[in-house]
Amino acid sequence: MNIEYFSHLMIMSGIFIILAVSLNLINGICGELSLGHAGFWAIGAYVGGSYGVFYALPLPNFLNLAISCGLGFVAASLAGLIIGVPCLRLRGDYLAIATLGFGEIIRIIIMNMDVVGGPRGLTGIPKWSNLPLIYFFVVITIIFMANLVRGTHGRAIISIREDEIAADCMGIYTFKYKTLAFVLGAGFAGIAGALYAHYQEFISPNSFSFMWSVIILIMVILGGLGSITGSIVGAVILTILPELLRFMGETISEWRMLIYSVLLIVLMLLRPSGIFGKKEFNVLALFSKKEAQ
Amino acid sequence: MQDIQFFFYDLLQFLVNGLSQGSIYALVALGYTMVYGIIKLINFAHGEFYMIGAFIGLYVCEYFLKINLSPTTALLLGLPVAMIGSGVVAVIVEKLVYRPIRGHGRISALITALGASLFFQYLGQGTVGAEPKAFPTLISGDGIEFFDGNVFISNIQMIIMAITVSLMIFLWWLVNKTRIGKAMRATSFNKNAAELMGINTDRIISFTFFLGASLAGAAGVLVGMYYNTAEPMMGLIPGLKAFIAAVLGGIGIIPGAFLGGITLGIAENLVVGFWISTYRDAVAFAILIIILLVKPAGLLGKNVKEKV
Q1: Is the pLDDT reported for residue A66 higher than 50?
Q2: What is the least distance, in Å, from the CA of B97 to any CA of chain A?
């Protein structure tokens, strides 16, 4: 295994960690099933990529990447707001279908936009991301999510997952907090999109199909719905697993999605809580326990 | 004057196309609606039963043509075989996957259904290959012309509508006039009470899956005939659209699925015909979001207040 291949895997893991952690905020922590995450990812990628292609300022790469990610975040969270406000009035399974629909609509709209290349895709995006920069954003995302969950807003969001009606009765404005979770989740997917666009240098609408929404969902469920640590582990496992399958021969890697679907069903049947459940793995807590002893 | 006349012809033509496409959506939507009505599960894999029906129909009809049966006989024999085939697959899926997950919450059930759907799509890709397969020609492309050939109804479109209407009448009879239909209605009204009345609800749920999937299988064969192709991914988008049709009519309501399917088919064809064809798939989702915002219970549904 050479170093370039290894760093490619690391980078893809990083991007998927951001995606899984952000989807975990919507699906795991808030408990609203969203199936349109690839759509927000696409918005971030296209906005960030377009900035790189059409409006790039003469700045150092890392500043440009930060601007690009910022734009991706703003665009995707705006899309999240536009989609979330009507959809979050719906419950459970309807929301899943509505977000799925929006994810597809976003892809169809991009496909019909000639400015960004339509179905041919957007080419010539400057390569601004690299391993340290991507992990800088990964760390920011994780710290942000961990702090959010521990704070007032996070507690309110968790209470919606546990029992929406009870939360409402306790005086929590559930609609506001659901929208907050949805918008933030969408926004971080946008950051992942911008990072992805500046790493791959080429994006096309087909790289953001419904299948990817499902794969990100499987990452979150494998790790454990509601656990940030779980999402990270899930993202890393499902990024590396296909590569391991590739080593085992072409036929197995062709059956990748079939293996994923069986994995999803078996997980739901045998261990619906995933690897971590709702628990977090916390290094600091481990040390403080030892001190207490 | 001439413009108005041609506009009228176009409108009629799109209505005809919309009706035949809407019939397909209606057939698939019925399965969604019945399953949702009985166990409150959005069966994501329903579109895959439609795909399985199309493939069974394809191979069976090919076999019948090979042993020198006439195309009409092949269709008349192949359609029931495909219906029973996809129904049996649905019953197996229900027994193996959906029954253990029942009672684990709706999100788990939904994710499991998604898994089942992916399983069949990629199993299809792995076994028969991803490229579309040609469906044998069973019905010639002729048809009837109206208004000096400005409006055209093909034989296949007529057969699609005829088969849909007859299956609908059969379903109406089954649900409203038979013993098992009465048990189905009782189970969907209140599962526990039905069980106490001596109804084997597990068997009724299996039967509902069988019925829904066999209607979807019939739709698959008809679509295969209409477009002359079948492919493993063919179930995804029509499945979603049929779900939208079911929501549009009011999910859980059988006449609603029919109404929703026809409405969706016509709306889609009008948009594609008069506006932009590339937005075909976006129309359905836009309709879904509008209906969910304006009248979430659907066209024929009644609003139910949530109780603690």
Answers
A1: yes
A2: 8
Q: Is residue A241 part of a domain?
A: no
What are the strands, taking DSSP E only, across chain A?
Answer: none
Neighbouring-strand partners of residue B146: B151
Q: How many CB pairs under 8 A join A and B?
A: 108
Q: How far apart are CA A223 and CA A13, in angstroms?
A: 14
Give the mean pLDDT of B165-180: 90
CA distance linking residue B106 with residue A20, whole number of Å: 21
Q: Minimal Cα–Cα distance from A169 to chain B, Å?
A: 11
Say how far apart CA B45 and CA A59 lie, in whole Å.
50
Q: For chain A, how many structural domains are there in total? A: 1
- Confidence class of residue A292 from pLDDT cuts 50, 70 and 90? very low
- A268·B306 Cβ contact <8 A: no
- What is the distance between the terminal CA atoms of chain A, rounded to a whole angstrom? 43
Q: What is the pLDDT of residue B89?
A: 94
pLDDT at A283: 67
pLDDT in tens, B152-161: 888 888 888 9
Whether A249 maps to a domain, the answer reads no
pTM, full prediction: 0.84
Tokens representing residue B153 in the block: 């109804």
| Residue A293 pLDDT class (50, 70, 90 cuts) | very low
CB A37, CB A210: distance < 8 Å? no
What span, in angstroms and rounded, lies between the C-alpha atoms of B219 and B229? 13
Q: Residue B198 domain-assigned?
A: yes
Residue A292 covered by a domain: no
**Cβ-based contacts of A262 with chain B (< 8 Å):** 115, 119
Rounded mean pLDDT of chain B?
86
Question: Tell me, what CATH number does B266's domain have?
Answer: 1.10.3470
> Which carries the bigger pLDDT value, residue A260 or residue A149?
A149
- Tell me how many helices (H) and strands (E) chain B has: 12, 4
Q: Structural domain of residue A45, as residue ranges?
A: 3-211
The enclosing H or E element of B95 equals none
Q: ipTM score of the complex?
A: 0.78
Distance from CA of A130 to the nearest CA of B (A): 34
3-state secondary structure of A273: coil
